[in-house]
Specification:
156 residues, alpha/beta, Rossmann fold, five-stranded parallel β-sheet, two-stranded antiparallel ribbon, 5 helices, 7 strands
């Protein structure tokens, strides 16, 4: 299974790629929209071959384009990835209030994420993609990280 990691901070992208590679995933990294115009194929009509080829995506909602308020925003990429019916692990900052809905195959973690949480979320979301509606996976609980207050789903 291939996982795309869209993260503009090189150090964090490298860490996430390493964790996922060690867990047995094929991985590819992308810095997200890059300067000077911060445009990205994923938010345009031609699509993104990296995303289309991936089975799951890890996306930081604080990309460089968001920090500079220029070009394609991370939420636009999230919308694009979800339009491809890809499971997405989202990394958020303290001010982000993204909460996944039942069945949307999205997990949300505050930055910096825990290694085991990211790996487990990717595995569960990929499993959810393979299972049919009405399966036992729908009974997995919502998991709250201690002190984080984000409603992230370990399944559904």
């Amino acid at each position: 299974m291939k996982v795309l990691v869209a993260e503009s901070e090189t150090w964090l992208r490298d860490v996430l790629l390493g964790w996922l590679r060690e867990a047995g995933f094929e991985v590819v990294g992308c810095p997200g929209p890059e300067g000077p115009d911060f445009l990205c194929a994923g938010a345009r009509k031609e699509g993104c071959p990296l995303a289309e080829d991936a089975d799951a995506i890890v996306l930081d909602l604080e990309l460089e384009s968001d920090l500079l308020i220029c070009g394609v925003a991370a939420w636009e990429l999230l919308h694009y990835y979800r339009s491809l019916d890809k499971p997405v692990v989202v990394l958020t900052g303290s001010e982000d209030t993204l909460r996944p809905l039942p069945g949307d195959r999205t997990a949300v973690f505050r930055r910096p994420p825990d290694r085991e949480d990211v790996i487990r979320a990717v595995k569960v979301l990929l499993l959810a993609k393979e299972l049919r509606p009405g399966s036992a996976l729908e009974t997995l609980p919502v998991v709250e990280a201690p002190g984080m207050g984000t409603g992230r789903r370990s399944g559904n």
